[in-house]
Write a structure and sequence with these properties.
This protein is mainly beta. The chain folds into four domains: about 5-175 and about 225-345, 5 Propeller (Tachylectin-2, Chain A); about 185-225, no CATH class; about 360-510, Jelly Rolls, CATH 2.60.120.260; about 520-600, Sandwich (Immunoglobulin-like), CATH 2.60.40.
Length: about 600
């Protein structure tokens, strides 16, 4: 058996962003996002933004990064890839110039043939219907919709007028609201205008000197309206599923929704199950702007963008989850334990299978050779990608040690490195464009050694990558048969640019031999049309909870993981729709399902 653990274990390249809003000050972070995944001639390929290449895999678990030719739009966001008549078609985003297309019969070796574009677009998606007709979808804005048009098969030029297909409705669709946990409604027109006038005054630029085309963009920026973006089309049993992302990549609620239709250009209706890809909790949240495809065995998968957003809003990673269509044709994605190890067998599998191994490390005792203030050792086991342990030096003698409290049957360890305020010179020329930047072209190194112990005295090597030629900042070590371990020591670390080796997650998975948690007690109450409050009663011997909700007791497709008993507001509801709620509890020994209840109206 093979296992994946999100984010996808691949080398994420550093970006040196010259954001004009920061007066030219470089913002440095790793980034990959907006994945398009296809199966082509028996292999799987992911094209993601700002990676300079393509990720290729034979099994959806082990991925390798291959560089692509420099003439391709590698510095343009949201690459879209589709297979048509034995050709792989590629394009990416540009608002300022016509976007060319490229096609090839050999992804890794080329050659790539250029097909001249005829109009600009952002967040593109090509779709080939069963009858061979070709359709195109695009859009990324908080002021304009997602568009669609049919293309001429021979020229790939529009064969008609573009049509507006999906727009934002944050007053009725809770998950489209911006902010952490979908916390903000858009401003009124009067509020937007007041903010716009204040912005003009602060800028010192007379309004008469601002181009007419720019004014609505400024108002949109000040409106708190969601971005509607990232189109992707699938067809299943004769119906068309137009997927889209919202409300913004920097939020924990970055998600994918879906509209359905009997025609590729609509009209489209909001599906019953929405958002179908939604992961606001856990170690690494976010599950928006992605793609959905079937593997060689008939399993459906959804890949999407996960957010860190500490050094830059676009500090992001890529995740992969089981997906599918239920008996009623509802598209779903299972993210209940969406950043825990998941088995991938190469056979047909239940997309709702629970993880085989439980999380053992959260909240456990840590110590270290040294630490900076605010970045103490326990930050490495908080199950929060936005906090991390940081040693005082980058010397290889620094170490981090974890004590699970007792011996466990350990099956996997994920080591997550973070970046903490990098201040280094850009190693190459900044490329101009809508977001001027340089992408690190060199293959860098992330190295470490992990040891284990039963008693804290006698140590053995679990994995030694102190001389590894790879740069895997979210590496997964699998001990499939299990090993008895209580203590872990991470040492001999070296990371790119000689920076301090920060650890956001030293995450251990395995099995305890005790009792599972008691059945959780909770109440769930609707708070207005778009929100609900779930109050979980504390209970002993529980590490965390999964809040599940959906349209019926057998369709609890949405989940929100929390690690303490509390009142959790969930802001992803759709106005006028009924919901059911269940809270499951988990600890080192397993998962206990709670009772499913209808969501009550607010008192």
């Amino acid at each position: 058996m093979k296992y994946l653990c999100n984010p996808i274990n691949i080398n994420y390249r550093y970006q040196f962003n010259a954001d004009p809003r920061r007066h030219g000050q470089l913002q440095i972070c790793r980034e990959a996002a907006d994945p398009s995944m296809i199966c082509f001639e028996g292999r799987y390929y992911i094209f993601a933004s700002m990676t300079l290449g393509v990720w290729v895999s034979d099994d959806l678990v082990t991925w390798e990064n291959h560089r692509l030719p420099a003439e391709l739009p590698l510095y343009d966001y949201a690459p879209d890839v589709r297979v048509r008549d034995g050709w792989v078609w590629l394009c990416a985003s540009s608002r300022d110039q016509n976007c060319d297309r490229w096609r090839t019969r050999n992804i890794l070796d080329g050659p790539y043939e250029k097909v001249e574009g005829t109009f600009p677009f952002w967040d593109p998606n090509l779709f080939v219907d069963d009858d061979g007709r070709v359709y195109f979808y695009w859009g990324c804005s908080n002021t304009t919709p997602i568009w669609g048009v049919e293309l001429n098969r021979e020229t790939m030029h529009p064969a008609g007028e573009k049509q507006a297909l999906i727009d934002g409705h944050p007053w009725e669709i809770g998950y489209e609201r911006i902010g952490e946990d979908n916390s903000k409604l858009p401003a009124s027109e009067a509020e937007v205008e007041a903010r716009y006038q204040a912005f003009i005054r602060r800028s010192g630029t007379p309004e008469s000197q601002i181009p007419d085309a720019v004014k609505p963009l400024i108002r949109g920026m000040l409106s708190d309206r969601p971005y509607i973006e990232g189109a992707w089309m699938d067809k299943h049993c004769g119906r068309y599923y137009l997927q889209y992302a919202c409300p913004g990549t920097q939020y924990n609620t970055y998600s994918d929704g879906v509209y359905v239709s009997d025609s590729p250009l609509g009209p489209f209706t909001l599906a019953n199950n929405n958002p179908y890809s939604y992961k606001p909790g856990g170690f690494l949240p976010g599950a928006g702007h992605g793609s959905t495809m079937q593997d060689e065995q008939g399993n459906w998968w959804h890949t999407a963008t996960m957010r860190i957003s500490m050094n830059h809003d676009f500090e992001r990673r890529v995740g992969l989850w089981p997906a599918g269509f239920d008996a009623d044709g509802e598209l779903f994605c299972n993210q209940r334990y969406g950043d825990w190890p998941l088995s991938v067998s190469g056979l047909r599998q239940d997309p709702w299978r629970n993880p085989e191994w439980m999380l053992l490390s959260t909240g456990k005792t840590c110590m270290a050779s040294s630490s900076l203030s605010g970045h103490e050792p326990e930050k490495a086991v908080e199950e929060n990608v936005q906090t991390w342990w940081t040693p005082v030096t980058a010397n290889r003698s620094e170490w981090l040690q974890l004590d699970l409290g007792r011996v466990f049957d350990v099956h996997a360890v994920q080591i997550n490195f973070a970046d903490d305020r990098l201040d280094i010179s850009c190693p190459g020329p900044i490329r101009p464009g809508s977001q001027a930047r340089y992408i690190e072209e060199r293959d860098l190194l992330t190295q470490w050694k992990l040891e284990g112990s039963v008693d804290g005295t006698d140590w053995f090597v679990i994995e030694d990558k102190s001389q590894a030629p790879t740069d895997l900042s979210h590496d997964l070590i699998v001990l499939e048969n299990g090993t008895s371990i209580r203590f872990f020591r991470l040492s001999d670390m070296a990371v790119p640019y000689g920076q301090l080796p920060c650890i956001s997650g030293l995450r251990v998975f395995g099995l305890g031999n005790g009792d599972k948690p008691a059945v959780p007690a909770f109440t769930a109450e609707r708070a207005g049309d778009l929100d609900m409050n779930v109050c979980i009663v504390p209970q002993p011997d529980t590490l965390g909870y999964n809040i599940l909700f959906g349209a019926s007791p057998d369709k609890l497709y949405h989940s929100y993981m929390v690690f303490d008993a509390r009142t959790q507001r969930v802001g992803a509801l759709i106005s006028g729709r009924k919901y059911y709620v269940r809270v499951d509890a988990f600890n080192e020994n397993g998962i206990t399902e709670g009772q499913c209840v209808p969501l009550e109206k607010e008192a």
